Structures are given as C-alpha cells and as structure tokens.
Amino acid sequence: MRKVTRTAPAKINLGLDVTGTRPDGYHLLETVFQAVSIADTVTVELIDTPDIALTCDVAGVPCSPKNIAWKAAQRYLDAAGLTDGVQIHIEKRIPMEAGMGGGSTDGAAVLLALQELTGNALSMDKLAEIAVSLGADVPFFLYGGTAYAAGIGEKLEKLPAFSTDCMVIAKGTAGVSTAQAYGAIDALQNPQHPPVQELRQALRNGATAEEIAPLCGNLFELAVDLDEVAAIRKSMLEHDALCSVMTGSGAAVFGLFPTRAAAEQACTALKKLVPFAEVCHTL
To answer: 85: domain range?
Structure first.
C-alpha cells in the first residue's frame, strides 16, 4: 500500500482561557477541544523520489514548506529515517483563519497516514512529540473526540464524548491573525475569565448541551473586535441558540441549539449574512 486517504476533522473550543505565558513567550491555555464533522480530506502517497509535493483544491493555501502538512511529512520522514518522498493532496472544506484548526488537523492527518503507510514506524510518544513541535493543537487531532487541554495545548485529558447534532458553525469574510489575537489578549486589563474548569467537570459528569451552554466561553472574544463575529452571534441568539461563542482565536462562531430544526433555521438565516454557515455534529 502506497496511498492513504484520511478525513481531517475541524475542532471548536467549547471553552478557552489564556492563563499566562511561559518564559519562552508561549501562552498557557486551559481549553476544551471538541472535534466536529466539518472536515478536510487529506490523501498521502509515498513516492520513490526523495521529495515532498503538496497540492490543494483551494487557492490561497500555501503549498510549500510553510504548510503544517508539509512540515509534518518532513519531520516524520526525518524521525523514521526514511528515504521515500511524499505526495500530499488536500481537499479543503474547513474555512481558513477561522480558529477551527484547519492547518493543524491536516498536519495530524499526514502523521497518521504515514504511520499507516509505514506500519507504525514511530512510537505514539514520538508521534506526539512531532505533533506538538508542529503546533499546540496538533496533538489533539491525533485522538479527536472531546478533550481538556492545558499547557500550550499539549497536555491532554480525554473527556466523555459530548454528543450533539444541533450545532451551527458560521464565519464571515474576515480572518484573524493568531499572533495579533494573542497580542490583544496580552493587552487586556483584569478580564473576566470563562469558567473552563466548571465546563470540564460538567462534561466529566455527562452534561447535556443545555447544561454546558452557560459554561461555554472564550477569552478571545474580549480581544477580537470583528463586526461579523458580533453579527453572527446576534443572529444565532435571535434564532434560539443556547449559546453562541467564537472558537479559537477567531473568526468562526459556533452555536448550540435545542433542536435540529432550530439549528437548520438559524443556518438558513446565517447563509444570507455570511459566506460560510453549516449545521454539523460532534465527533
């Protein structure tokens, strides 16, 4: 077998707080990651020439060593001592600059595909080491589901699966630079932090969407000022969302709804407002 195709799901942050910075400048987080059904498709093929090639069906995605998927392939080959090359193709469905981990999930998909293609040439510990070197949320995508994360995102605790098919995710035309978003976080004075630990405990206890909705929150909402984010949240709440919260450092927003019908009605309204809106389910 020389080719593998994997689904690379997006994530949302049901809760996200920034609690400090390390001496090396990395920010310390407390967050609850949740994998969702919006996903890219990543095809990875081992080739005989010692090169890495990357293609994508969406313009604007860097098909170069700047891409996390490319970096993942190179670091895997180096760690495993392989002389093969890798051809990667990404079918992009996760919106970019959305705070949904689109680049990170593609990188994790490449790592997992290469594990399959090579018969697990690396230990999971080594795979996780490569993953965290690629980005703080890449380790989560090796496992998916629902997880609490601390540190820079690499310290993971698997939580009971949070199940709902009454979710809408929407994003406008604007994106958010992660670096700029963290700079804005650093400038906040005495912000009100979201109750991530309460959310974590509620999920441990098997809480429903109605029970966790009041606990969902994102510190970046105080730092990222986008009219589209405000408009999406307003529209979701007007259509009976249990909560409406920006994910990651922005600019996508998720809403939890009491019924699938309410989610579909909200999505129809949002499609008139922004270019991306989709009803989805958790994984």
So the answer is: 3-158
99: region left, alpha or beta (phi > 0 left; psi from -120 to 50 alpha): left
Give the C-alpha separation, 203 to 162, whole Å: 7
Residue that terminates a domain, selected from 107, 139, 158: 158
Contact call for residues 44 and 73 (beta carbons, < 8 A): yes
What are the residue numbers of the active site? 11, 137
Torsions phi, psi for 77 (to 5 deg): -60, -45
Same-domain status, 99 and 52: yes
Say which CATH number the domain at 103 has: 3.30.230.10
* Verdict on whether the full-model pTM lies above 0.85: yes
20 exposure class (CB count in 10 Å sphere: 0-12, 13-18, 19+): exposed
pLDDT in tens, 70-121: 999 999 999 999 999 999 999 999 999 899 999 999 999 999 999 999 999 9
Q: How far is CA 139 from CA 133, 151, 219, in A?
A: 9, 12, 22
What is the helix (H) or strand (E) element at residue 132, kind and residue range? helix 124-134
Q: How far apart are CA 265 and CA 262, in angstroms?
A: 5
